[in-house]
């Protein structure tokens, strides 16, 4: 089972949240990935805040966990989700859409409740590590 970490979960890790850290430590490092868009969201926030210590921590995490690149297949999935959600009147911003599409093909997604609406409609399995 692969766990793709949401932006919120990576933020919790960088803040040293004990329950999230325990969950990460109890998982196989090869089973944890950081989606490319999540990496970007975290990196831009840390650079903007001039958070050099957390940037160093993020770089260390990226040496332990894989940053999962987007593929053309992910873009195809994103397009399908976009069209389906648009027809249903449930648009989604591009960053969340790309994360969701990438994760749908990879396995469960360690997240908080932010992506709960995606669970059944778009094939995303969410594992709430923030509880």
**How many strand elements?**
5
Put simply, the count of helices is 7
Determine the fraction of residues in helical runs and give it as a percent range.
55-70%
Which blocks of ≥5 consecutive residues have pLDDT under 50? none
Largest sheet: 5 strands, parallel
Q: What order do the SSEs take from the amino end to the carboxyl end, as H and E?
A: EHHEHHEHHEHE
- CATH class category name: Alpha Beta
Principal-axes geometry comes out as globular
Distance between the termini: 20 Å
Question: Could you say how many structural domains there are in total?
Answer: 1
Under CATH, the topology can be stated as Rossmann fold
In round numbers, the mean pLDDT is 84
Identify the CATH homologous superfamily: 5'-nuclease
> DSSP strand (E) fraction?
5-15%
> What strand order characterises the main sheet?
3-2-1-4-5
CATH architecture: 3-Layer(aba) Sandwich
The rounded Rg comes to 15 Å
């Amino acid at each position: 089972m692969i766990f793709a970490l949401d932006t919120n979960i990576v933020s919790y890790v960088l803040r040293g949240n004990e329950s999230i850290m325990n969950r990460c430590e109890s998982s196989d490092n090869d089973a944890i990935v950081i989606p490319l868009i999540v990496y970007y969201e975290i990196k831009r926030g840390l650079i903007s805040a001039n958070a050099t210590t957390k940037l160093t921590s993020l770089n260390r995490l990226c040496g332990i966990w894989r940053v999962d690149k987007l593929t053309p297949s992910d873009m195809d999935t994103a397009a399908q989700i976009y069209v389906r959600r648009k027809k249903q009147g449930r648009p989604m911003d591009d960053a969340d859409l790309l994360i969701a599409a990438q994760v749908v093909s990879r396995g469960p997604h360690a997240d908080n409740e932010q992506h709960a609406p995606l669970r059944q409609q778009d094939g995303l399995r969410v594992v709430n590590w923030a509880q």
